[in-house]
Amino acid sequence: MKKILLTGFKGKNNSSGMLVGQPAFEYVLLTNSFAGLKRDIDSIGTEYDFVLMFGVDKYLSSSVRIEKCAGKDGKKTYSVIDPEKLVESLKKAGIDSYISEEPTAYLCNEAYWQILKKFEGRAVFIHIPTIKHIDERFIDDMKHALEDLRGS
């Protein structure tokens, strides 16, 4: 069984923090500032097989977006995790998803960039809908997908 770390962002109405705060997985809630984010990521140990990162995209309502890469200073760094395997696990759990190769802007991208560098590509970032578009069923479905990934 693989050792997976989940990350989400702090905030009582942040769906990524709600999702990762499940007792079956180790998780870290990241601070919503660049300085705090760096501190949080620096404190994470490297003993994990890979990191699954979650952030919110207010434009998503019924699907999730898998980020293949992060960008900084005109360069991209890519995940070594096969996104198709993740799509398959999400589909089996009843969650629609798609893959993006265009880095997002701001904090999610910065967190992903730092984690990809720290874990030598052994991470993937998934954008999920806001709290108004998810429910307990979505969280349960995501937990099933994560269990499937951990066992493979």
Beta-strand segment tally:
8
CATH hierarchy class name = Alpha Beta
CATH topology: Aminopeptidase
What CATH architecture label applies? 3-Layer(aba) Sandwich
Secondary-structure class: alpha/beta
Shape: globular
Widest β-sheet, arrangement of strands: 2-1-3-8-4-7
Percent of sequence in beta strands? 25-35%
Return residue spans where pLDDT drops below 50 for at least 5 consecutive residues.
none
Estimated helix fraction = 25-40%
Task: Tell me the distance between the termini.
Answer: 7 Å
Residue-averaged pLDDT, rounded? 92
CATH superfamily: Peptidase C15, pyroglutamyl peptidase I-like
> How many domains?
1
Give me the secondary-structure topology.
Elements (H helix, E strand, L loop, with lengths): L3 E6 L5 H6 L5 E5 L3 H9 L7 E7 L6 E5 L1 E4 L2 E4 L4 H10 L3 E5 L6 H12 L4 E6 L7 H16 L1
Parallel strand pairs: 1-2, 1-3, 3-8, 4-7
Antiparallel strand pairs: 4-8, 5-6
Helix pairs in contact: 2-4, 3-5
